């Protein structure tokens, strides 16, 4: 039986002295209040009200039970209030700094429709999982090999001038293949992870580029500045190239992609990001662009 609902009806009727008024106070129809109180009486094996008078008067058993019933109702209301506050408690998520403001705002808006309130903290790939372990965030979008991730974002190279062909072969950057300074490929901090950086370095060595022709930049801004002022290339996603106004092509010698998984202190937080909010998270990361 619904013990809390029965006690709530019992308390409201006792306070008003009327089944009709008590039902209105409990915000339920009068027949429902009567049924709940009758069920409570059957449960305890005693009557709660003397029904021989016009007013709903408590029996001796009802008077003895009323204080405990009030405490139960108050505790139930406090529990509902605490549950509502817990749902509104922000869920802080560590995200890459490559996520755009608009995409994060759309993700937060979609989450609110599911009563999830998100806050974001940008951090480099090597720090995001650590923020979960130190409880500074509840969840993090972690950098993983694309084959192990929930989301995969294709990477290529982008420059100021549109390159010929559908792909860019890094071997074309070898010294002597073109006049002028040696062109470089800039790796931004988000891609300074083994499953991206090491693959690019292996291609560099295989095709005979100089070590300095593949460099890790201090920030995306500094990498983009180098590209804007030269014929250098930026390793990036399609979405980033579009945002920066650069011409993007995949790399001919190797398939490159960012992979992302979820680390969270609570399994339900991780599952929410992987399933309910999967598409919105993907848009933030640049999936499908």
TrEMBL record:
Domain HTH lysR-type: residue ranges: 1-59
Entry-linked Pfam families: HTH_1 (PF00126)
SUPFAM superfamilies: Winged helix' DNA-binding domain
Entry keyword annotation includes Transcription regulation: yes
InterPro entries: LysR_HTH_N, WH-like_DNA-bd_sf, WH_DNA-bd_sf
PROSITE patterns with a match to the protein in the record: HTH_LYSR
UniProt superkingdom: Bacteria
Record keywords: DNA-binding, Transcription, Transcription regulation
Protein family membership: Belongs to the LysR transcriptional regulatory family.
UniProt protein name: LysR family transcriptional regulator
């Amino acid at each position: 039986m619904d013990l809390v609902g029965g006690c709530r009806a019992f308390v409201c009727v006792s306070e008003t002295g009327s089944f009709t008024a008590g039902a209105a106070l409990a915000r339920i129809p009068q027949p429902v209040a009567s049924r709940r109180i009758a069920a409570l009486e059957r449960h305890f094996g005693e009557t709660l009200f003397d029904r021989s008078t016009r007013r709903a008067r408590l029996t001796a058993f009802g008077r003895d039970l009323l204080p405990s019933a009030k405490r139960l109702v108050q505790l139930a209301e406090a529990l509902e209030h605490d549950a509502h506050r817990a749902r509104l408690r922000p869920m802080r998520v560590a995200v890459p700094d490559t996520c755009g403001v608009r995409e994060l705002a759309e993700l937060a808006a979609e989450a609110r429709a599911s009563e999830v309130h998100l806050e974001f903290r940008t951090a480099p790939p090597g720090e995001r999982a650590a923020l979960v372990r130190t409880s500074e965030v509840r969840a993090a979008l972690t950098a993983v090999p694309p084959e192990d991730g929930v989301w995969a974002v294709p990477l290529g190279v982008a420059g100021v001038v549109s390159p010929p062909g559908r792909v860019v072969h890094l071997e074309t950057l070898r010294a002597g293949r073109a006049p002028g300074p040696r062109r470089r490929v800039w790796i931004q901090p988000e891609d300074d992870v083994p499953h991206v950086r090491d693959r690019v370095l292996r291609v560099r060595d295989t095709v005979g580029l100089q070590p300095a022709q593949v460099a890790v930049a201090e920030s995306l801004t500094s990498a983009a500045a180098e590209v804007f002022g030269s014929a250098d290339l930026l390793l990036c996603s399609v979405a980033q190239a579009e945002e920066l106004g650069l011409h993007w092509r995949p790399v001919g010698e190797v398939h490159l992609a960012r992979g992302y998984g979820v680390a969270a202190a609570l399994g339900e937080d991780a599952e929410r990001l992987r399933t309910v909010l999967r598409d919105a998270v993907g848009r933030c990361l640049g999936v499908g662009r």
